[in-house]
Every structure is written in C-alpha cells, then in structure tokens.
Amino acid sequence: MGQFDNKTVIVTGGALGIGGAASLAFAREGGSVTVMDVNTLAGAATVAKMAGLPGRGLFVEADAGTSEGCRKTVDATVEAFGGVDILFNNVGIQPAASYMNAVDLPEEMWDRIIDVNLKSRFLMAKYCIPHMRRAGGGVIISSASVQGLQSMPGVSAYAASKGGDLSLMRQLSLDFAADNIRVLAVNPGTIETPMVKAAAEAAGEDIGQALKSYGKDHPLGRVGQPEEIAEVVLFLASDRASFMTGESVTVDGGMMAKGAWAGGAGADID
Ligand SMILES: NC(=O)c1ccc[n+]([C@@H]2O[C@H](COP(=O)([O-])OP(=O)(O)OC[C@H]3O[C@@H](n4cnc5c(N)ncnc54)[C@H](O)[C@@H]3O)[C@@H](O)[C@H]2O)c1
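YS: structure for the whole thing
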C-alpha cells in the first residue's frame, strides 16, 4: 500500500532537480503524477522512469509562467486522472543573466522571473483549488527558498519571488482552510540540481569545486540532494502532517541557524 495510492499530484518543473526527485518519490508511493515542464526530453524521461513504479505518470509540456500553460496542465491532469489532490508548486528559474542589481536588471527579466516563480503559484492554485474543493480537500506545497528568508546581493527578482511565494502561501492557507486545503512551503538551502550547476558553470567555476565551496556555507558541511527535499515534501503532503498549514519548513543543513558572526561552522569539513 503506497502513501499516495488514489492521489493525483501535479509537480511543476517536475522533470529535473527537486521536481524530478519529488515526481519519482510520489510515483514510488503510488501517486498518479503529472510532470509539468518545458523540457520535453527530460519530462518524457522522468515519466518513463515511472513505468516500473506503483504509481503512474503523465507528461505535460507547458510553460508555468503563462496562464495557458497552467490551465492546460490542470485540464490534462483532470482528464487523465479525474482530479487534483496535491499540487507541488516547485518550478523556479534564476538565470545567470539575472545576477545584477535592480538598476541594471532589464524589466523583461524581472517580469519573467516573477511570472515563473511567483505568478505560477497563483495560477496553479487558482485552477487546482476548485478540483480540490470537489474532492473534499487537498495540499499545496511551494518550493520557496532560504532566499525568501534572508538575502544576498544581485538577486532582486528572485528574492522578491521567494518572499512573495512565502507570503502567498500564508495567505492562501487562510482563504482555503475551511475547504480542508493545507498550504505549505519548503525552503531549501543549496541543493545539487541543474539550476545550481548551471550557475556555477556560468560563473566559470569547476562544478565539483563550486559544490564543495557552497557546502561550506551549510553547517552540515555539504550541499543537499534533491531527494532530501522530496522526502520533506512527501511528508507535508501526507496525512502525517494533517495539522500543518500556513507554515514553511527550512531544509538547509543548518544554514539559516547560523548568524553572520558565527564563523565557519561546517567550513572545515572537506
Ligand atoms: N537548487 C537549489 O539550491 C534551490 C534552493 C532553494 C530553492 N530552490 C527552488 O526549488 C525549485 C526547483 O529548483 P531546482 O534547483 O530543482 O531547479 P532546476 O532548474 O534544476 O529544475 C527546474 C525544472 O523546472 C523546469 N522549468 C524551468 N522553467 C520552466 C517553466 N517556465 N515552465 C515549466 N517548467 C520549467 C526545468 O526544465 C527543470 O526541469 C525552484 O523553485 C527553486 O527556486 C532551489
């Protein structure tokens, strides 16, 4: 018996990285999983991996930063699986070309990051919640970030999107608690995904060295793996978290526990 037998799950940006790990984890637990992604090859490959698992998969090629893409994903899910029980609002972008201050950041880049990282949360919730209400409840979980809690130079749009994600999560939890819809978020630290590797590559860094160096910012002395975020997402989506809503869980190897004056806890771990 899987934890998510008879449950339908949508994972936005579900092909690779944290979304890919979560898609497979839900399918391992019997879920019917829609992988929504712009990457056709990777999306099809992730769904193909579900063939040997208890759950089943559907790939929908769609852009989460558009209303049409979000609506199409929900419609295809309802047609294939009959409803939506769990929405993992995971998709996010942080293009290397966006690392600059607000004066220099092109307005189009701001709009794109906000559309994909934040507006998609609103759109997917808007289209999924009517189906959750019909089913008597549901769970919505966001991939927010430690960057929604604290900040760094050169990331104005990404920071705003992650702060907005957390704020929207809290707000939605109030509007839909009476419908038995729980709304939550995870705040990952640095996780070894294509996004992080691409950022290292764009900065001209050796990926292995960069991951080691990012790891030193985390008291546990390493970066996280996508599966370690997926574990927490599955817990939040399950009935074991039945009294949790309107809250985020930080999964960052201790990074947010550390003050700037704390020195290099983890820094000596190689
Ligand atoms: N990796 C980290 O260190 C980290 C840390 C904190 C928060 N996060 C957040 O976690 C989420 C996942 O991050 P990741 O590192 O796994 O990212 P990733 O770039 O490795 O994977 C993202 C997936 O989303 C897809 N995607 C990109 N744009 C899309 C769009 N417009 N529509 C549909 N799909 C799209 C990509 O093809 C890919 O499959 C993001 O919201 C990110 O901001 C990541």
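YS: worth flagging: The chain is about 45% helix and 15% strand.
IM: good catch. Also Helices lie at 17-28, 40-49, 67-81, 107-135, 156-175, 194-202, 207-215, 226-237.
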